[in-house]
Amino acid sequence: MKKSLFSALALLPINLILAQNSVTGTISGWETISADIVTGMQSPIAIGTVSEDGSFILNLTPEFTAQTMKSIDEFNKNSAEWKASVMTLERAFACYSDSLEITNGNVPVIKLSNFGGYDLADPKEKKIHGSFMIVNNKEFAETYRSYGQYNAIPGYFMDWFYFAEPSSVIGECTTESYAVNQEETYKAITDYQLDFKAGWNLVQYELAEIFTDKEGLTYALKTNYKTLDTLPEGVQYIYFEDQ
């Protein structure tokens, strides 16, 4: 997702239902056309639909893993210079110390979103209408998407991870970091409370605390990753319209 391509509109969830294999609800403000919900780094993978009246379904199926691997294989066949691969659990949540307890670290990490978001598209026309994130509010979504701007604010977004077998990442990782001015330092802390079951797992990425340098730039100071059973109360759907 490129910030320069989108403008933000808030989508409020109505009658959200989280089932074992799907998430359904109504997105207020989406009254354009019917579209597919797609994700994927190499080629779009359809994972749901949104109707003209805003009702949507986001599918959580085991087949997404095979679709992801197929997409990566096709990319590698057509790329002479770059090769894509799925990260393992221990690589995705690596720490430079021994402070993390990781079980089944060699299992692949299959994530539903693309950088925390989902595109709304017409695959036949090869057109992206926009995208949305599942977050606590619009302000956090905007700052999270503004990569490299050093304007972090507290907030969270939700995502789903698929695992073929139970796995976990527990512990806290601390990294000594420099501000942009190269004068101030801060200890960035990431806390992991990830207890993955076999199948789909709901994960919350939360930026809990920020560090502010003397120029007013802000950075992630305390970040939490944790698995949840249900979506948090008050969760919002933030829509970014393609321009």
Short description:
Keywords: Signal. The chain has 243 residues and is mostly beta strands. The chain has helices at 63-77, 89-92, 138-145, and strands spanning 6-11, 13-18, 22-27, 35-39, 45-50, 55-59, 100-103, 110-111, 117-122, 127-135, 155-163, 167-178, 185-196, 199-212, 218-228, 236-242.
Overview of the molecule:
There is one protein chain. This protein has one domain. It has 3 helices and 16 strands. With 243 residues, it is mainly beta. The model is unreliable at 1-19 (pLDDT under 50). The chain has helices spanning 63-77, 89-92, 138-145, and strands at 6-11, 13-18, 22-27, 35-39, 45-50, 55-59, 100-103, 110-111, 117-122, 127-135, 155-163, 167-178, 185-196, 199-212, 218-228, 236-242. The chain starts with 5 loop residues before the first strand and ends with a strand. 25% of the residues are buried. The strands form 2 sheets. Strands 1-16-10-9-4-5-6-3-2 form a 9-stranded antiparallel sheet. It is globular.
Q: Strand order of the main beta sheet, please?
A: 1-16-10-9-4-5-6-3-2
Which band does the percent of strand residues land in? over 45%
Overall pLDDT level: 85
Low-pLDDT runs: 1-19
Q: What structural class is derived from the secondary structure elements? A: mainly beta
Cα radius of gyration in angstroms? 18 Å
Largest sheet: 9 strands, antiparallel
In which range does the helix fraction lie?
10-25%
